[in-house]
Amino acid sequence: MSSSVVPEGIYVPMKKILFALSILALSMAALAVDVTGKYNGKLSIDATAMKKGMVSKAAKGTDAEKKQAQQIVTAIDQQVKAANASVLKLELKKGGTLTLVQTIAGKTETDSGKWTLKGDTITLSNLTSKGGGPKTITGKVSKDGKTLSFSLDEEMKKQGAAMGAPAPTGSLTFKKA
Q1: What are 19-58's pLDDT values in tens digits?
Q2: Rounded to a whole number, what is the largest CA-CA distance in the chain?
Q3: What global pTM score does this model have?
Q4: Does residue 164 come out as left (phi exceeding 0), alpha (psi in the -120 to 50 range) or beta?
Q5: 76-101 burial, b for 16+ CB within 10 Å, e for fewer?
Q6: Burial 103-136 (b: 16+ CB within 10 A, else e)
Q7: What is the tens place of the pLDDT at every residue in 47-100?
Q8: Long-range pairs for 15-19 at CB < 8 Å and ≥24 separation?
Q9: CA separation (Å) from 52 to 33, 70, 120, 169?
Q10: How far apart are CA 82 and CA 142, in angstroms?
């Protein structure tokens, strides 16, 4: 019979230790949230800082530069409005694969990829987006597993830097359908 010694010098049969560890593992698994399923998403982008930066920069320029800046601000407003009105559908499948369907201004794009969950942190990766969006995004899962929340600020900082303007801010939230 196998046994192990505990600090007090009491011998405990190995089977009892393994049984206790098994119970602990099962109780930990019971606490894990099942995030598989279908979700409806909401994109929220705020480009106020970006627009102010462009107008401020153009204020020192010629009338033509001011006019061009105003046209760009109008275009940004239209793009943000369309993005915020987009329809997002996410399906997290067993086995760690996902499908993301996004419809913006009547154009639908379907991405596929993978998802992983560690604690309350979820990562969507290998996204196949042709629209230039992030290929990997990490967010948080609510305690009940019904809400997935992602900050888009880091991705938008990259895009703002590429334009030489302050970055917009944004978030992406999915609610279980």
Answers
A1: 545 544 443 444 478 999 999 999 999 988 888 888 887 8
A2: 91
A3: 0.74
A4: left
A5: beeebeebeebebbbbbeeeeebebe
A6: ebeeeeeebebbbebeeeebebeebeeeeeebee
A7: 888 888 888 878 888 999 889 888 988 998 998 999 999 999 999 999 999 999
A8: none
A9: 42, 10, 36, 13
A10: 27
Mean pLDDT of the chain: 81
Helix locations, the chain, DSSP H: 14-31, 48-58, 63-84, 153-163
Residue 53 structure tokens: 């930066």
Percent of residues, the chain, with pLDDT higher than 90? 44
Rg of the chain over Cα atoms, rounded to whole angstroms, equals: 24
* CA angle, residues 110, 121, 112, in degrees to nearest 5: 15
